[in-house]
Design brief:
Layout: H1 2-27, E1 30-31, E2 34-35, E3 38-39, E4 42-43, H2 54-65, H3 67-76, H4 88-100, H5 107-118, H6 124-132, H7 134-150, E5 156-158, E6 170-179, E7 199-207, E8 212-220, E9 239-242, H8 249-257, E10 261-266, E11 273-279, E12 282-283, E13 290-291, E14 302-308, E15 315-323, E16 333-338, H9 347-354, H10 358-370, H11 381-409, H12 415-420, H13 426-434, H14 440-454, H15 460-466, E17 473-475
Parallel strand pairs: 6-9, 9-10
Antiparallel strand pairs: 1-2, 3-4, 5-17, 6-7, 7-8, 10-16, 11-12, 11-13, 11-14, 14-15, 15-16
Length: about 475
Amino acid sequence: IGTILAVLANDIDRLAERWFRKVAKASGDLVDGDYQSSTPEGPMPKKPPTELCHQSIAELLRSVLGEDVVDDIARETGFLKRKRSVTPLAMLCACVSTLATGTARWLADILRTFNDFTGASVRYKPFHKQLAKPEFAEFVRRLLSVVLGEMSMPVLRSLPGHKLSVFKDIVIHDGTSFALKDALVSFFPGRFTKVSPAAVELHVTMSALADNAIEITLAPDKEAERAFSHAPESLRGCLLLEDRGYEQRATFVELDEHGCSFIIRGNTSIKPTVLEARAGKRRLRNLETKVLNLKKLPRGDVDLEIEWGRGKNRWRGRLVVLYRGGPRGPKRFTLLHTNLNRCDFATAEVGQLYRLRWQIELLFKEWKSHASLRRFDTSKPTIAEAMIWLSLLGATLKRFLAHSAEQIQGVELSTQRVANAARHFLDDILRCLMTGGRNLAAVLVRAFRYMAENTRRAHPERDRKRGRLASGLRPRAIVKV
């Protein structure tokens, strides 16, 4: 009898809850599934979301890519002077959809997507005129800058009490280049004049903890990459990782003076003087007070204190030499300049940390493979520039959605797989934004569920042993909704 009464009580509670919800919805007291008090002063204001959820992600998307915000940026850049049938938001969504799903081969592909999204019958010529405006390229660049600032969230953290917790961020800087149509050589001259006369290079600063780009600069490929290094004064308390193209004594001095830790790969052709040499706990006195000769190094990792250069550009610091096996020679050693303390970071740990630099190479691969960042068939420099910014905007948006789904669904996702599968969920999100985004939270629920079921990381445990998490990083606390 007690069991029967308990079951009946539960059934009565469910029926009462359903009845109260119907009454509350009819009276306007139920908003988005939450009860609102109907006091004489009016409904109680909802508390702003303090944790990650579908609704907070939807609000962020509307605040950055909503029609009013997009129109304001278009007016500021001069792209929008009066409303036409080709609106900035519709044009933006059509471009992002076509480029981010990797289906763009011609500019006409974007027009077909635009007509599908809007139900219009816009012809190619007026659409091409909008794309060719210099203000359009600046409009997309400004919008990308806003997206990079607002849609970067920390997705990785150091283990509690780990050495990496002393760094505010792990910053990776590098560049990637690709060819353009030869007719653009006067606007974007390349380094390889016979093979690719016209080419551009993207100088990218990436946050390893946010797993996304935080700053992107576009320049002709012919320009030296050292001039586009990240400002040292903004890197205080961070760890900077760079490739051998940024090896420069003056840069080491400046970074050290501004309190920035760094690991920068060195060229095997340098000839510094070795002041102190150690292989583990063993002192290598036969190498000291001599010019570095890689052929005389032992078959193993070596930790050196070097003096390089003279006068104002003299640098005295730590040089970690990693041995990769085989006969001794320049091709078997990796040189890493660093100012990390030996007592805190051993030789092997410096090498493990530098492996995080590979994350920016994976980012470049994702852009070129799944965001249509490639040579565009256009002789218009403004269109070529706009297409580059649009490709990066779509790629950044996909990474943001991947990171949001990862934390909300409570699973580790592969950003490469999410980028490749974008055609299955991105259009629904863009169409919802075009219509005001009222049901955006529900659209995100379906999109995030799809990602959780189809784009998981293949080997999360392997990542912890010898992947990006082997250096002491872990995914941030998962918020389950």
